[in-house]
Design brief:
It is built from nine helices and eleven strands. The chain has about 260 residues and is an alpha/beta fold. The protein has a five-stranded mixed beta sheet. It has a four-stranded antiparallel beta sheet with strand order 1-2-3-4, with no helix packed on it. A two-stranded antiparallel ribbon has the order 10-11. β6, α5 and β7 form a beta-alpha-beta unit. α5 crosses α8. The radius of gyration is 20 Å and the shape is globular.
Length: about 260
């Protein structure tokens, strides 16, 4: 590994934590995607018609450390992702506070797609041809409390009529989906569960494998919004509480009165 002195001083020992403490958002020279950045995305199955719709940048911290970059919402933080498997740091956040990212793909969108990572989100958009919406990239499931607490302030003025949950099908993704569902149910916000059907996969896995995109909700293992709406209507008509399982297998329920 050969780095010039200025870059070496900036990066420190490359152990992750020290790198994050030394690099600041102002140190990043965010530039448009270079050919190698586009090549990386295409190696993940994502076509130019898809990734060109997202506001992506590239930054170089040295010859072996070029990364994709995108900004966090309402924060100075920038999310970085390596474009080489040989990079010592595959993912990192520069700056604070850590937040989610927003991408508006069309004028006046009325739907939101929520995904954990940007690569998975772009894969979902390509698989489903979904380009007429907002994309919320959590960057980390740890920001879910921040996202939920800011949801009304950010989106109420945009006349959103549906939220699509497209998180990963793994333990953290399912728990995060469950948490967001409960918030949406409590706030009477229509949602659709588009968790990948296959256990352990995200939407980029499905795209790269060339598999047919199937969601959990398509198998009716999860309640559709109309089920929740009907249960709510029945509760109002009968004056009794309807207790429905909003996430089978977790032992958790949503109570609609």
């Amino acid at each position: 590994l050969y780095l010039d002195e200025s870059i070496e001083a900036l990066l420190g020992d490359l152990d992750g934590s020290e790198t994050k403490s030394k690099i600041k958002p102002d140190d990043l020279d965010l530039i448009p995607l270079h050919p190698n950045g586009r090549q990386y995305l295409e190696s993940r199955g994502i076509g130019s018609d898809t990734y060109s719709r997202f506001e992506l940048f590239q930054t170089s911290l040295g010859y072996d450390f070029e990364k994709l970059a995108w900004k966090h919402y309402n924060s100075d933080a920038v999310e970085l992702r390596a474009i080489s498997e040989e990079d010592n740091i595959q993912k990192m956040t520069v700056g604070s506070p850590k937040s989610y990212s927003l991408f508006k793909l069309t004028d006046n969108p009325t739907e939101i797609v929520i995904a954990e990572g940007l690569i998975s989100a772009m894969s979902y958009s390509q698989l489903f041809g979904k380009f007429d919406c907002w994309y919320v990239i959590l960057n980390s499931t740890s920001v879910i409390p921040l996202f939920l607490s800011s949801y009304n302030d950010v989106f109420n003025k945009h006349n959103i009529n549906r939220v699509i949950l497209a998180l990963d099908h793994d333990k953290s993704g399912l728990i995060a989906t469950d948490r967001i569902k409960k918030f949406l149910s409590e706030n009477e916000i229509r949602y659709t569960d588009h968790t990948p059907l296959a256990n352990g996969l995200d939407w980029n896995d499905i795209l790269v494998r060339g598999e047919k995109p199937m969601t959990i909700q398509q198998t009716h293992r999860y309640l559709e919004y109309i089920d929740i709406e009907n249960a709510h209507s029945m509760s109002l008509a009968s004056g009794k509480a309807s207790v429905i399982s909003d996430f089978p297998g977790t032992g958790k329920t949503t109570v609609l009165i």
